[in-house]
Each structure stands twice: as structure tokens, then as C-alpha cells.
Amino acid sequence: MYNTLSTQLKDGILEITINRPDKLNALNQEVMKELALAIDEVYKNHDVKSALITGAGPKAFIAGADISEFLTLSPEQGAELAKIGHTIFQRIEESHKPIVAAVNGFALGGGCELAMACHFRVASENAKFGQPEVNLGIIPGYGGTQRLVQLIGKGKALELMMTADLVGAEEARQLGLVNHVTTQEALLDRTRELLKKIQAKAPLAIGRVIKCVNAYFKLEEEGGFETEIAEFAACFATQDLQEGAEAFIQKRQPQFKGE
Ligand code: COA
After folding, report:
1. Catalytic positions, please?
2. What CA–CA distances, in Å, run from 113 to 63, 65, 131, 215, 225?
3. What domains appear along the chain, each with residue ranges and CATH number?
4. Among candidate residues 146, 41, 58, the one with its CA nearest the CA of residue 99
5. Atom in ligand 1 nearest the alpha carbon of residue 60
6. DSSP annotation of 223
């Protein structure tokens, strides 16, 4: 049914696996389209009581948006890209059924943003989180500037987004970015266990808890998310983004000029 992800429904849990392991599950436009369909299924299929999102292979949850698609984008197309990401990730965040990320490796850029849009995160010991967009002459564009601050606070969020440093699973747990750390082997079972526990509670009450917690952030959110889309789009008019994305593809260090 899908090209870039696989889904499996078991015990009421829709397990969504992003499946491009040779590209570390990077989010290209096809993945985003298919992810939107899978999230629709979470909303609409009565047999689905909750969902888990993970990545295929032992190395990555998702290593970010697909950088190879950045080179040809205009600012207008950058804004479109960000809006698509915002819409899907907001649907995840606002889902009345619980959606949990099982982070099995690199969760970088759009991958970290997707994990943060989920209701909470469980990570394996090898997981690494970060928003390294400034390495490429870009900024987070799928809600990261807002959700990272919500989860770990302003100072640490600014440090991570400005240094492009990655944090390991245990540090991510201490920061409040992930709730539990497990071995790689135990990751999915631990996440399923938590979801089954939630599924045994009153579903309408769970949906209301999600709605109320999201409402806490709403006022600030509108302005912040809109600003992020505009600033993300503006990156696509810069030489620095061309240089950053090209350098990544050519496997060399970028030479930024601030242009
Ligand atoms: N977009 C597109 N392709 C990506 C990607 C991304 N975000 N992340 C990884 N890939 C691809 C690589 O280009 C490589 O493809 P190739 O085999 O055809 O050359 C493949 O996935 C494996 O990645 P590689 O870089 O060889 O693995 P590694 O173990 O040496 O490094 C990372 C792993 C995660 C450190 C490195 O891939 C990386 O820095 N990725 C980009 C992270 C990022 O900046 N994300 C934010 C994007 S906005």
C-alpha cells in the first residue's frame, strides 16, 4: 500500500515504520504524503486505538528532511514545504488517540521535529537527537523552534539549535525530551506496553487530556509557528543554503559567506 513506510495494526496499535533505511529514513515529499495518509488512518479507523511511529533499520529513526530536495526550492516552495510539515505534525500533536515515537537511532532535524510532535517519546540507548539545520544554512521548519522550547526550555533549546550539537538518549531523558530509555531490542515492546496501558483507560478522557495539554501552548504557538514558516522560507533565497546542502551531498565541509 505504501512505498516509503509500512504499517501494521496489532492489539489496537497502528505501528508506522518510516522505511528508507538506505537514506536513514529521511523525510522526502513521498514520505510526507504517505505519513499524512497513515495519520488519517489513525483518526478514521475505529480499530486503531493508538499509534507508534518508528524508523526502519538499526541506525536511524529519521535523519531529517531530505536534503537533496532542498537545492532547487524557491522561498515560496520553502514556505509550501514548511506548511505541509506543519499541517501533518499538527495533526499528530492534536490526534485524540495517543501517538508515541519509538526513537531507534538518529532523530535529527525533521526527525526530531516529528518525534516532538508525538505525545511523548521512548528512545533506545543509541538514539541521538538534534536540530542541526544551521549546518546547512537553514533553520528547523516543521515546528522545531517551538516544540523544542516547550519540551526543554529556552536556553537549552537555543544552545542545541545554534551549536547544532546532538544529544544522546540519556541526556535527552534528563532534558525531558524523552520519557524512557531502553535497549534497542526492548524499544518496541516497551512502547507497546505503554500504549496498551493508555488504551485501557477511557478513550474520550485521553483525547480530552491531549486537547487540554495542547491548549496550554496555543496562545504563544500561533505567532511562533507562523514566524518559523516565514523564516524557514527565507532560507531558500540564500547562497548559504545552496552551499550547505551541496556540501552535504558532496560530503565536504561547507564554506558559508552569510549571503
Ligand atoms: N537527507 C538526505 N539524505 C540523507 C540525510 C538527509 N537528511 N541523512 C542521511 N542521508 C543519506 C546520506 O546522504 C547517505 O546517502 P548515500 O549512501 O546515498 O550517500 C545515507 O543517507 C547514509 O548517510 P551517511 O551520512 O553516509 O551516514 P553516516 O553514518 O556517515 O552519518 C548522519 C549519519 C546522521 C550523522 C549524517 O547522515 C547526517 O548528518 N545527516 C544529515 C542530518 C541533518 O542535517 N538533518 C537535518 C536536515 S534539515
Report:
1. 113, 133
2. 11, 10, 8, 19, 13
3. 5-184 (3.90.226.10)
4. 41
5. 34
6. H
Ligand 1 centroid, distance to 66 Cα (angstroms): 9
Under a CB-based contact definition with an 8 Å cutoff, are residues 12 and 198 in contact? no
Give the number of the atom of ligand 1 that is nearest the alpha carbon of residue 109.
46
For residue 73, what are the CA distances in angstroms to 125, 217, 235, 254? Answer: 36, 31, 10, 19
Distance CA 161, CA 133 (A): 8
Among 4, 23, 166, 249, which residue has the most ligand 1 atoms within 8 Å of its CB, making it the best to mutate? 23
Residue type, 188: L
Distance 90 CA to ligand 1 centre (A): 25
- Ligand 1 pocket, Cβ-based, cut-off 6 angstroms: 23-24, 26, 63-68, 106, 108-109, 132-133, 135-136, 138
- The model's pLDDT over 97-138, given as tens digits with 9 standing for 90+, comes to 999 999 999 999 999 999 999 999 999 999 999 999 999 999
The tally of CA atoms less than 13 A away on the side-chain side of residue 76 is 0
Interatomic CA distance for residues 107 and 104, integer angstroms: 8
Would you state the cell numbers that stand for residue 175, as one nine-digit string?
Answer: 532534558
The pTM for the full model equals: 0.93
